[in-house]
Design a protein that fits this description.
This protein is of the alpha/beta class. It has one domain (47-253): Collagenase (Catalytic Domain) (3-Layer(aba) Sandwich), CATH 3.40.390. 32% of the residues lie in helices and 12% in strands. A five-stranded mixed sheet has the order 2-1-3-5-4, sandwiched between helices. A hairpin with a 5-residue loop joins β4 (156-162) and β5 (168-176). The longest helix has 15 residues, at 181-195.
Length: 259
């Protein structure tokens, strides 16, 4: 696969800001490439809706390994992604297509595939359900893995290791491949958002894939907007919520418009 880097020319958002005080609008069906039964998406959001979602999802996480950054987490350089095919259903090509979609649609997000896990800073393990807990134990130790599973009962997960200044050093992603397309694609999009720095969940947010009560399975307009905001140069690793809030109005105003 060719190197995955910043957005391709001509790829634009359909984030047309709705008037303040109005809920998200512009509902449309899920993309044709989504799984049958995937929920529709909205395309227009108020600045308040984007700000609220960003502040909820860019701070905190269920499981973090390494330092305890005080603010935003993001890659400051190129993310090198190694995909390890370790399950009974071949999904590596499908995951690389998901990854390529992120790279094509998110300005300023740089990533490229790596054939050598030792040289990668994102490791994606595609595994069978029966091996999920064992793979986590091998990566993080029995105590950490068992505590996480007991607390969240996950079907997939991502752990981010970062410097105290918020720069992501490494992300470990675990995705189950043998429980059908719906589970695979929901996990693939959900965990890739985590790996790039939207590391929290917002179960009261009806538009994001990072709402654990929803099964989505595609890259929504809303999540594209949030990740574009994260990788805007004005949002820097380590920024606190109050610091981010000061720059978000200008960042949101400059989001690409149209589709």
């Amino acid at each position: 696969m060719a190197a995955i880097a910043a957005t391709l020319s001509g790829v634009l958002f359909c984030v047309l800001l709705a008037p303040a005080g109005h809920a998200a609008t512009g509902q449309r069906p899920a993309p044709p490439t989504a799984q049958p039964g995937a929920p529709p998406e909205f395309t227009r959001f108020t600045p308040a809706e984007l700000t609220r979602g960003f502040l909820a999802l860019a701070f905190g996480s269920d499981l973090r390994v390494g330092g305890k950054p005080r603010g935003v987490r993001k890659f400051s350089g190129t993310a090198r992604v190694a995909v390890l095919e370790q399950g009974s259903v071949p999904r590596a090509a499908a995951y690389r297509a998901v990854l390529r979609e992120f790279a094509e649609k998110i300005p300023n997000l740089a990533a490229m595939p790596s054939d050598a896990p030792d040289g990668a800073n994102i490791i994606v393990r595609l595994i069978d359900e029966k091996n999920f807990v064992g793979a986590m134990e091998q990566a993080f130790g029995r105590r950490v893995a068992r505590a996480f599973v007991a607390r969240t009962d996950p079907q997939c997960m991502t752990s981010i290791k970062s410097r105290p200044d918020g720069t992501i050093l490494r992300a470990d992603v675990f995705i189950i491949v043998d429980q059908g397309d719906e589970v695979f694609y929901d996990c693939a999009y959900h965990e890739t958002l985590h790996a790039f720095g939207l590391s929290n969940h917002a179960d009261n947010n009806p538009w994001t894939t990072l709402n654990q009560t929803r099964v989505v399975g595609y890259l929504t307009v809303y999540d594209r907007a949030l990740l574009t905001m994260l990788y805007d140069p004005r949002v820097k690793p380590g920024m606190s919520a109050s610091e981010v809030a000061k720059v978000l109005p200008a960042v949101i105003a400059d989001l690409p418009k149209g589709d």
